[in-house]
Amino acid sequence: SQQGEEDPQALSIQEGENATMNCSYKTSINNLQWYRQNSGRGLVHLILIRSNEREKHSGRLRVTLDTSKKSSSLLITASRAADTASYFCAKHSGYALNFGKGTSLLVTP
Amino acid sequence: EAEVAQSPRYKITEKSQAVAFWCDPISGHATLYWYRQILGQGPELLVQFQDESVVDDSQLPKDRFSAERLKGVDSTLKIQPAELGDSAMYLCASRGTSGNEQFFGPGTRLTVL
Question: What is residue A62's predicted lDDT score, i.e. its pLDDT?
């Protein structure tokens, strides 16, 4: 079953703008991970945030986690055309990851 | 840089035929996963191995799908017979002993006609 659900399903912005995508989940987590997938390719791990963390940064990425609302957000600042991809949140549950349906991000020059 | 290898990258088959996918995880990674990703959806776990043992295959349609990792290194996922609804991307991932990050291969795109 798909545990994390991303919002919006699709997002179109211009280069230089910030992109924010959200993820909600249903049950408690140990950690939540964000992955990127370029069209027709495998997934690439971006960032992991643990349940006892509230915010984490990695380069132009900022992830927040609100366990009381069971939600997370991924912010990409100063977006580039190369950021065009699908972004998935994944809840780490037991042995494996449960992925949402993803947000499709299009960054136009 | 170490990568997860998968082959073939693309496979077209007719329904009722048998297909097999191969995965070679990053060297030293004991945990191996097979996922299926339908277009427009996120990956869904089919099976997870710890070394040569199956940890979770609850979502694997066992009437037609099988997976093995005989020596605890590379793995094969088989579908027999293939059905139209099996058309999807099949992704393999591996994880090391430290950390929770999974490393994905490029996937095998299966089209069943």
Answer: 98
CB-based contact A2 B45, cutoff 8 Å? no
Identify the bridge partners of residue A50 per DSSP, sorted by sequence position.
Answer: A31
Mean pLDDT of chain A: 92
Cα separation, A18 vs A26, whole angstroms:
27
A70: exposed, middle or buried (Cβ count in 10 Å: 0-12, 13-18, 19+)? middle
Residues of chain B neighbouring A48 (CB-CB closer than 8 A) = 99-101
Diameter over CA atoms, chain B:
42
Helix (H), strand (E) counts: chain B: 0, 11
- Nearest CB among A4, A40, A42 relative to B104 is that of A42
pLDDT in tens, B56-76: 999 999 999 999 998 989 999
Distance from CA of A31 to the nearest CA of B (A): 9
Largest CA distance in chain A: 41
Please indicate whether, in this complex, the C-beta atoms of B91 and A44 are within 8 angstroms of each other. no
Q: Which residue among B42, B56, B109 places its CB closest to the CB of A2?
A: B42
Q: Which residue has the tokens 């590379």?
A: B74
CA torsion, ordered A87, A8, A60, B5, to nearest 10 deg? 0
Cα distances (angstroms) measured from residue B33 to each of A82, B25, B57: 28, 9, 10
Question: Contact B89/B72 with Cβ under 8 angstroms?
Answer: no
